[in-house]
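Project standup — Tuesday

K.O.: blocked on the structure for the chain from last sprint. Re-posting the sequence here as requested.
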Amino acid sequence: MKSISIVIPVYNEAGNVAQLHQEVVDVCRKMGATFELIFVDDGSNDATSKIIKTLNPVKLIRLRKNFGQTAALDAGFRHASNQYIITLDGDGQNDPADIPLLIRHLEANDLDIVSGWRKNRKDTLRKRITSRVANLLRGILIHDGIHDSGCTMKIYTRESISELSLFGELHRFIPALLIMRGFKVGELPVNHRYRNSGKTNYNFSRTIKGFLDMVSVWFWKKFALRPLHLLGGGGILFLIAGLLSGIYTVNEYLQGQSMSDSATPILTAFLLFTGLQLFISGLMSDMISKIYYKKYETQSYFIHEIVENE
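H.V.: unblocked you, prediction finished:
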């Protein structure tokens, strides 16, 4: 049995953390696994942290304010020390009993990450519809082959996340990000339970942010190593259109047509200027992309305290 780290991001989950902690501990001890249980409190304003501090064994990481689930997961990843890292939602809807199933599926198929698939979701109708639309768009833009990338319940090898930097709402697209880096990703149906306490933190603004990050992932997948192909290609098309417009304008002028009432000179200038600007932007983006891959970004959150009970 490999050593495992369980990372659980929480925000205002005072009514769920104690029961979830006990369930996870029972499962890990039943497996006979060496484990650490990490709760990341993402700026809760209820008694979540106070309750976690009474639990044992546990490691609590408190962020200074609510930075979002992506930041909380990143903090947990950076402080996880074992061979496998397993993530669960803090609302208790992910079933800790699925942990050994994830481990077996990962090892049996020689994978780097296994993503949970909530085939029978216990969510509101609005949330299910929004999720299905998001999954449809993700399938069109990203093609990661995952039915339910938004499911927090996943298992990762340490190697797969060792150099992964997360920002925005990118936690939904971790499988796609790892596929882009050449890691092997699988999927496994998992149990999904009703929320026992508290209310969901899911809202419309998170949906919009998730969509924008989806576009960002699409761009990185297609053009991260070659942004000049996108911007430069668009610039060349505008330059060609500007050149054709210029030829037409000159021909009209040579035939004695008055240019004072014609829009073609302005159109020509616009197309040429836009094409040149896009092409130069492509060159600059290409250089910035190379700089990015030589130097990793810093984290986007700040930790208030770390408490560890053994």
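K.O.: great, moving the ticket to review. The chain has two domains: 4-223, 227-294. Residues 227-294 form one domain.
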